[in-house]
UniProtKB/TrEMBL annotation:
Locations listed in the record: Nucleus
The protein's name in its UniProt record: C2H2-type domain-containing protein
Organism of origin: Rhynchophorus ferrugineus
Lineage: Eukaryota, Metazoa, Ecdysozoa, Arthropoda, Hexapoda
GO CC annotation terms, alphabetical: nucleus
Ranges in coiled-coil conformation: none
Amino acid sequence: MLRFFDQICIVKILKCYLDSIDKPHKCNLCSKSFPTPGDLRSHMYVHSGSWPFKCHICSRGFSKHTNLKNHLFLHTENTTPFPLIKEKEERSNSSNIT
């Protein structure tokens, strides 16, 4: 099992790599760029607020079915096969609390 510090380093390395990939598909609303048309299409749900996949428990919306499936682990077993995804979800949920 990787230590927390090692996980952070891996995430930073991956972010640097992903930032260097050519991203020719630009959002005309916020000027973010994406490597594929599908990524841009998924991003557009952020602006429309019309999410194609919704959690039946908390109504949170997702652009991809996989993200909804990962999210459902928070409601059921309280475990996920992807610890970093769970950690990110928990942080974003706590920042959305008003």
